[in-house]
Design goal:
alpha+beta, hypothetical protein PF0899 fold, four-stranded mixed β-sheet
Length: 169
């Protein structure tokens, strides 16, 4: 509100008595609401910007993590055996006829790394080019355990954000 506006309102209030005061009060309310609307509109892009930055950072973290895991597999390809064991551990103990579907490159590594007794524990390896290196899908008659990199990463991030929401509550 400018100085001129204040003087005009002052003249209205002084010259018009209680009716002028009511008119001035109504004018102040109108202008206050207009100011609130403008301030809300100015704040809204920052909320959207924060959400956009959060999404972009999450995508960056996912991309970096995938590259780190891929590099780890290049330097220590036998890590795929640990991934398989992790997936097998998620199955019920009495599960029979287990098929571990893995990338063909990983399949060769796994066959070289596994001890003979591991192969005779009721599971077999199936090469599947649709499975990304470093991950696997473990299938039984009744279930599928998805231990692919993308799925594991998604689960870790979802858990992390869930923990964050709980701690902020």
């Amino acid at each position: 509100m400018s100085e001129r506006d204040v003087l005009e309102l002052d003249c209205v209030v002084v010259g018009a008595g209680p009716a002028g005061l009511a008119a001035a009060s109504a004018e102040i309310d109108t202008r206050s609401k207009a100011l609130e609307t403008v301030l809300d509109a100015l704040a809204r892009p920052f909320v959207n910007l924060d959400r956009h930055i959060e999404e972009e950072l999450l995508a960056l973290v996912q991309a970096i993590t995938q590259q780190v895991v891929r590099q780890e597999l290049k330097t220590e390809p036998e890590r795929i055996v640990d991934v398989i064991r992790e997936g097998l551990a998620a199955l019920p103990a009495s599960t029979d006829e287990v098929v571990v579907r893995i990338n063909p490159t990983d399949a060769d590594i796994v066959k070289d790394c596994l001890r003979d007794e591991d192969i005779h524990q009721g599971w077999s390896i199936a090469s599947d080019a649709t499975i990304e290196r470093g991950g696997c899908e473990i299938e039984t008659k009744n279930s599928i355990v998805d231990v692919q990199i993308e799925t594991r990463l998604h689960n870790v991030i979802a858990t992390m954000f869930e923990d964050e929401r709980i701690s902020n509550a």
